[in-house]
Amino acid sequence: MALLTIANLSKTYRTAKGGEVEALRNVSIDVDEGQLVSLVGPSGCGKSTLLKILVGVLSKTSGTISLSGQGVSGPTGNMGIVFQTPVLMKWRSVLSNVLLPIEIMGLDGQKYAERAHSLLEMVNLSGFESHYPWELSGGMQQRVSICRALIADPPILLMDEPFGALDALTREEMNLELLRIWNETKKTILFVTHSIQEAVFLSDKVVVMTPRPGKVDQVYDIDMPRPRATMVRYSPKFADYCESVRKTIYGTKAQGSTGTGLAGTE
Fold this sequence. Notes:
It is a single chain. The protein is α/β, with parallel strands linked by helices. 34% of the residues lie in helices and 24% in strands. The strands form two sheets. It has a six-stranded mixed beta sheet with strand order 6-7-8-3-9-10, sandwiched between helices. Helix 6 links the parallel strand 7 and strand 8. Helix 7 packs across helix 8. The radius of gyration is 18 Å and the shape is globular.
């Protein structure tokens, strides 16, 4: 059963000169409870715009969003989000950064402190509660941001290119870390990435979007056993999935008249 249903979602921006830019057109996606679903496509196809609409930062032009069968039309505490950069407050400790959403929502911080410690233990950051962001590596900072997104126990986690700023080795490590966290928390995750390999490696389903205006071009169900280890990347089946996604992206890019850049083909 779909936990998140996006139906015929469209977004048109008004420009400063009075014109219009259509970012998304009739996007429909179902994300089942417990699934990890990735969005890939050319730069500018509206992947990040879609996540901002889901979390309530942007308004939609038309269409519907429902979570557990209930309509969503604005900001909600039922979705956590992780950005490309950790966006940690440099003057706050690790523990204080994780508890920030609780503070903003006016909830009892002491009540959630135990959960914060448990989340930090889950991502192997026990002992770093009193450290500050500048004392941590990039991968460690992103682990903190994942804990912050999970602190209020949202049913769905949105991730907007969370590992895009990391070096290749750290990114591969964080892919494995995310799968471990996902397996432990059983969260539903909608994951935006420019990397085809990352999308295929992580996901139950890969949604390929067209150049702007972004539409759903193709959906690939990734039928590979879990848990997945790094060696999966060297299997013929993995290569076939990556090639299929790549051909779809190149095909839509060739047909599109707008949009810049292709999804990563690493």
